[in-house]
C-alpha cells in the first residue's frame, strides 16, 4: 500500500500535544524575560543577545520535543520552532526555542504577521510559501492559555546562522 | 614630467589627487616617496613589496605595461620572474577612495585583467593615478648582499625606468610560522559568497567547490596566515562534504565512508595542497573538528547515555583514522561555537558569560577525554574562545582546555594569566577584527607585533570572507570582515584575490616570525628586549601592552553592562603613529638579527 505523507498540520497537532506550555513560559529565568531592556539602551544586536539566558531543563525538554516532532514523518522532514509574543510588546514576537534549524525569519524580535497571529488567537493556520509550507499551531499552558505557537516548515530554506 | 612613481608598501595614495592617504605619514610627496622606495632591505625567503603609481590623468584606457629586469648582485641574481604585479582596485569608504583589492596582472593575462581594463571598470571619477602593487620574492638560496636592477614602466607610449636596489640579509624567514595569523570564517560561506559556486548545487560532487576553496587556503598560506574554516552552523548542521558519512544510531553509530572527507581535507593535512607555494607543503597547523552539540551525537539524547555513546565512538574513529593517515602535524580542535542568542541551544559554548554555562567545558571534556588525553598519534585539543569569563576560567580550566582564544581587550586586563596557562602547556591567541580599509595600514601590522611583545602564540581575525555583495564599491564593515575578495565576478579568477591589508599582514608576519625565532633561543631575556624594540619604534609606552583592569572586573560577568566597556582600559598600540615607524622597527630588527 502506498504510504501517504502526513499533512504538516497533522504533524503540528501531534507535536503540540506533547509540548508543555508551562515550560515555554518558564524557558527563561524570570529576571531575563525582558532581556532587551537589560541591554541598557545599547542598540547593537550583540549587546541585546548577550542578555539572553535560559532555564536549561525547560529548554532542553522543549528542544528534544521539537527535534522529535520533526521526525514524526521523515518524508516531510520539516524544521520546528516555538514562537512567543514579547511581553513588553505583544505585537512583536521571536523564536524562543528552535529545533534543527532557525526559521527563515531568523532569531530577531520582529513584528508578527497575520498567519502566526491567528495561531496566537487559537486558530491553527497554514501558510503557503512558494514551494514551501508552514503550519502554525497554538501551544497552551496547563491553564489552557495560549503561550506560544509551534511552527513547522517544510521545503523552505531556514535562516543561515 | 615624471609619469610614474615608486611608493612604499605602507602608504596608499588617493587616485584622484595623488595625495598620501595615511594621515600621519611624514613623507608626502610622490618624488620623495620614489626616492625612499628605490632601496629595499629584506630578509631572504621573504616577500618585499612596493607600489608603482602611474599618472593616467583621466585616461582610463591608457596603454600600459610594466617589466622588471633581473636584479644583479656580485655573486648571483634575483630573476625577473620573482616580481608579481597587481592592479589596485579602489573602494569608496567614508567618502574617500582607498585601494584594497589587488587584481593579479600577468603578461598573458586576459583582457579583463589589463591595467587599462581594470581602471576603466573601477570608474573612479576624475582619476589621475592608477597604482600597481609589486611583490618581489627574495629567494632563500641567494647569497646575502646587494642586488640592483630596474623596473620599466611604459604608459601612453613613453617608458620610464626606475632603478631598484635590494639588500638581501643573512636572515631568512622560516617557512613555518611561529606566530599563528588566523583568518577565521564559517562553512560554507565560500559557496554562498562566490558567484561561481552560489548556484551550483552539485559543487561538491563535481569538485568545483574544492578547487575554489583550495585557492583560499593557498592564498592564506602564502601570506603566512591560516584560513580557519569552522565546518558547522550554529544549529550544528554541516555540509556533507565536511564530514565522513555516518551510519547507524546509538551503539550502532559508526563511520561508513571516509572517502569524501579524505578527498576534501587530506591534501591540507598532508601538506600537498600547498605544494608550489613559497612556504612549501606544510600541513595546516590547526583545524576545527566538526564535532558540536548536535553532531555526531543527536541532541535529542543530550543528558542521556546514548549521547555519550555516539559522541565518543565517532571521536574515537576520528582519532584512529587521522593517526593511521599520518596527520600528525595538525592540532585538531574540539570547539563549541554555539550561542544561546540564536535560540538553538540553552548554553553558550562560545564566550561563556553566565558562569553556569561553564558546565559545557566539563561535559564535553568528559565526552572526549579518551582522545584528548592521548599521548601519541594525532593531536586533538579542546579549544575555548573566551571573553567575559576569562578571568574566572583560565585557572580553572587550564588542565582541560589547551587552546585559549581570548578577546584582545579582555586578555590585556590579565597579564598574570599567561603564567598558569603556560605552566599547563596551553597555547594562547587573542581575537579581534581586521582593520577597516580607511584606517592606516600600520594598524594591520600591529597584531603580529603585539603577539610577540605579549608572548602569545597567535591572533584571530574573526571573519575574513564577508566582503558583501557590493564589495567592489564598499565592502561590508568597511573591509574589516574581508581580507580576501572574490576573483570570479569581475576578473574571471576562480578563487580569491588578495587585499593590500593581507599583504601588509604578511609583511608584519615575516618580521614577527623572525623575532619569535630569535626570542625562543633565550626567551627570558629576549622577549623583553623585542618588546622594548617594538615599543621604542612605534612609540608604545611600556605599560600600554597591559593597560590595567576595569573597576567592574570583580563583578560576575553576567552583571557587566555594555556601557561599562566605554570606560574600560584598552591597549591603544599604534594610534597616531606615522607609518614610517614600522620601517624604523624593521631597520632596528634587521640590525639586531643580521
What is this structure, in a nutshell?
The complex is a heterodimer of chains A (161) and B (594). With 161 residues, chain A is α+β, with helices and mostly antiparallel strands.
Question: Can you give keywords for this protein?
Answer:
heterodimer, A: 161 residues, alpha+beta, Beta-Lactamase, 6-stranded antiparallel sheet, 6 strands, B: 594 residues, alpha/beta, Immunoglobulin-like, TIM Barrel, 3 domains, 8-stranded parallel sheet, 6-stranded mixed sheet, 23 strands, 24% strand, globular
Q: Briefly, what CATH class of chain A? A: Alpha Beta
How many strand units of chain A?
6
Contiguous uncertain segments of 5+ residues of chain A:
none
Greatest contact pair? A-B, 32 and 27 residues
Order of helices and strands of chain A: HHHHHEEEHEEE
Largest sheet of chain B: 8 strands, parallel
Terminus-to-terminus distance of chain B: 39 Å
List segments of chain B where confidence is low: pLDDT < 50 over at least 5 consecutive residues.
Answer: none
Structural class assignment of chain B: alpha/beta
Helix proportion of chain A: 25-40%
Separate helix tally of chain B = 16
Strand content of chain A: 25-35%
What would you call the structural class of chain A? alpha+beta
Count of folded domains of chain A:
1
CATH fold description of chain A: Beta-Lactamase
Q: What is the oligomeric state here?
A: heterodimer
CATH architecture verdict of chain A:
2-Layer Sandwich
CATH topology of the largest domain in chain B: TIM Barrel
Largest sheet of chain A: 6 strands, antiparallel
Notes on the structure:
The complex is a heterodimer of chains A (161) and B (594). Chain A is α+β, with helices and mostly antiparallel strands. Chain A has one domain: Beta-Lactamase (2-Layer Sandwich), CATH 3.30.450. In chain A, 29% of the residues lie in helices and 27% in strands. In chain A, strand 1 (79-86) and strand 2 (89-98) form a beta hairpin. The model of chain A has no long low-confidence stretch (mean pLDDT 95). Chain B has 594 residues and is α/β, with parallel strands linked by helices. Chain B folds into three domains: 4-172, Sandwich (Immunoglobulin-like), CATH 2.60.40.10; 180-513, TIM Barrel (Alpha-Beta Barrel); 531-593, no CATH class. Chain B is 28% helix and 24% strand. In chain B, the strands form five sheets. Chain B has an eight-stranded parallel β-sheet. In chain B, helix 7 packs across helix 8 (359-372), helix 12 (442-454) packs parallel to helix 14 (500-521) and helix 12 (442-454) runs antiparallel to helix 15. Chain B starts with a strand and ends with a helix. The model of chain B has no long low-confidence stretch (mean pLDDT 95). Classes of the chains: A alpha+beta (161), B alpha/beta (594). At the A-B interface, helix 5 and strand 2 of A face loops of B.
Amino acid at each position: 500500500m502506498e504510504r501517504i505523507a502526513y499533512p504538516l498540520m497533522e504533524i503540528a497537532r501531534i507535536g503540540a500535544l506533547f509540548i508543555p506550555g508551562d515550560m515555554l513560559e518558564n524557558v527563561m529565568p524570570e529576571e531575563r524575560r525582558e532581556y532587551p531592556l537589560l541591554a541598557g539602551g545599547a542598540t547593537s544586536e550583540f549587546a541585546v543577545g548577550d542578555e539572553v539566558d535560559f532555564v536549561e531543563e525547560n529548554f532542553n525538554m522543549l528542544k528534544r520535543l521539537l527535534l522529535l516532532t520533526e521526525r514524526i514523518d521523515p518524508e516531510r522532514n520539516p524544521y520546528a520552532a516555538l514562537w512567543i509574543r514579547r511581553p513588553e510588546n505583544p505585537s512583536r514576537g521571536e523564536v524562543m526555542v528552535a529545533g534543527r534549524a532557525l526559521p527563515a525569519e531568523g532569531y530577531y524580535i520582529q513584528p508578527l504577521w497575520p498567519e502566526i497571529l491567528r495561531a496566537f488567537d487559537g486558530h491553527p493556520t497554514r501558510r503557503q510559501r512558494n514551494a514551501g509550507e508552514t503550519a502554525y499551531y497554538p501551544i497552551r499552558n496547563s491553564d489552557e492559555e495560549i503561550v506560544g505557537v509551534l511552527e513547522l516548515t517544510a521545503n523552505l530554506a531556514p535562516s543561515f546562522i | 614630467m615624471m609619469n610614474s612613481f615608486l611608493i612604499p608598501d605602507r602608504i596608499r595614495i588617493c587616485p584622484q589627487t595623488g595625495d598620501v592617504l595615511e594621515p600621519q605619514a611624514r613623507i608626502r610627496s610622490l618624488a620623495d616617496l620614489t626616492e625612499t622606495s628605490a632601496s629595499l632591505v629584506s630578509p631572504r625567503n621573504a616577500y618585499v613589496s612596493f607600489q608603482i603609481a602611474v599618472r593616467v590623468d583621466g585616461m582610463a584606457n591608457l596603454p600600459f605595461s610594466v617589466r622588471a629586469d633581473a636584479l644583479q648582485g656580485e655573486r648571483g641574481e634575483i630573476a625577473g620572474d620573482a616580481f608579481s604585479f597587481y592592479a589596485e582596485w579602489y573602494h569608496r569608504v567614508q567618502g574617500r577612495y582607498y585601494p584594497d583589492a589587488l587584481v593579479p596582472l600577468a603578461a598573458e593575462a586576459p583582457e579583463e585583467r589589463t591595467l587599462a581594463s581594470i581602471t576603466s571598470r573601477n570608474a573612479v571619477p576624475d582619476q589621475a593615478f592608477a597604482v600597481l602593487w609589486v611583490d618581489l620574492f627574495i629567494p632563500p638560496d641567494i647569497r646575502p648582499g646587494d642586488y640592483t636592477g630596474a623596473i620599466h614602466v611604459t604608459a601612453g607610449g613613453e617608458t620610464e625606468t626606475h632603478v631598484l636596489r635590494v639588500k638581501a640579509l643573512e636572515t631568512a624567514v622560516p617557512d613555518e610560522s611561529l606566530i599563528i595569523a588566523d583568518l577565521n570564517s564559517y562553512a560554507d560561506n565560500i559557496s554562498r559568497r562566490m558567484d561561481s559556486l552560489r548556484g551550483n548545487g552539485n559543487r561538491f560532487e563535481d569538485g568545483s567547490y574544492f578547487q575554489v576553496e583550495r585557492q583560499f587556503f593557498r592564498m592564506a598560506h602564502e601570506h603566512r596566515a591560516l584560513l580557519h574554516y569552522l565546518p558547522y552552523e550554529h544549529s550544528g548542521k554541516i555540509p556533507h562534504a565536511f564530514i565522513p558519512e555516518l551510519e547507524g544510531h546509538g551503539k550502532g553509530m559508526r563511520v561508513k565512508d571516509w572517502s569524501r572527507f579524505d578527498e576534501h581535507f587530506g591534501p591540507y593535512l598532508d601538506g600537498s595542497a600547498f605544494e608550489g607555494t613559497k612556504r612549501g607543503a606544510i600541513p595546516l597547523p590547526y583545524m576545527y573538528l566538526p564535532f558540536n552539540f548536535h553532531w555526531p551525537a543527536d541532541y535529542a539524547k543530550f543528558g542521556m547515555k546514548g549521547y555519550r555513546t555516539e559522541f565518543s565512538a565517532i571521536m574515537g574513529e576520528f582519532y584512529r583514522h587521522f593517526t593511521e593517515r599520518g596527520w600528525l602535524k595538525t592540532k585538531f580542535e574540539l570547539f563549541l561555537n554555539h550561542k544561546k542568542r540564536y535560540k538553538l541551544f540553552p548554553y553558550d559554548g562560545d564566550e561563556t558569560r553566565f558562569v553556569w554555562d561553564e558546565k559545557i567545558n566539563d561535559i564535553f571534556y568528559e565526552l572526549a577525554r579518551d582522545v584528548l588525553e592521548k599521548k601519541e598519534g594525532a593531536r586533538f585539543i579542546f579549544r575555548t574562545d573566551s571573553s567575559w569569563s576569562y578571568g574566572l576560567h583560565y585557572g580553572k580550566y587550564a588542565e582541560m582546555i589547551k587552546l585559549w582564544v581570548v578577546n584582545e581587550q579582555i586578555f590585556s586586563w590579565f597579564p598574570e594569566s599567561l603564567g598558569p596557562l603556560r605552566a599547563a602547556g596551553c597555547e594562547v591567541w587573542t581575537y579581534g577584527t581586521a582593520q577597516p580599509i580607511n584606517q592606516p595600514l600600520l594598524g594591520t601590522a600591529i597584531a603580529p607585533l603585539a603577539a610577540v611583545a605579549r608572548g602569545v602564540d597567535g591572533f584571530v581575525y574573526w571573519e575574513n570572507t564577508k566582503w558583501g555583495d557590493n564589495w567592489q564599491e564598499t565592502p561590508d564593515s568597511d573591509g574589516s570582515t574581508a581580507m580576501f575578495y572574490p576573483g570570479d565576478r569581475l576578473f574571471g579568477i576562480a578563487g580569491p584575490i588578495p587585499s593590500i591589508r593581507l599583504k601588509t599582514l604578511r609583511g608584519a608576519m615575516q618580521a614577527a616570525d623572525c623575532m619569535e625565532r630569535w626570542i625562543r633561543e633565550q626567551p627570558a631575556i629576549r622577549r623583553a628586549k623585542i618588546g622594548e624594540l617594538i615599543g621604542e619604534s612605534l612609540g608604545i609606552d611600556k605599560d600600554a601592552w597591559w593597560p590595567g583592569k576595569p573597576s567592574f572586573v570583580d563583578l560576575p560577568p553576567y552583571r557587566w553592562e555594555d556601557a561599562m566597556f566605554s570606560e574600560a582600559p584598552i591597549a591603544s598600540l599604534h594610534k597616531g603613529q606615522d607609518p614610517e615607524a614600522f620601517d624604523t622597527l624593521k631597520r632596528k630588527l634587521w640590525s639586531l638579527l643580521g
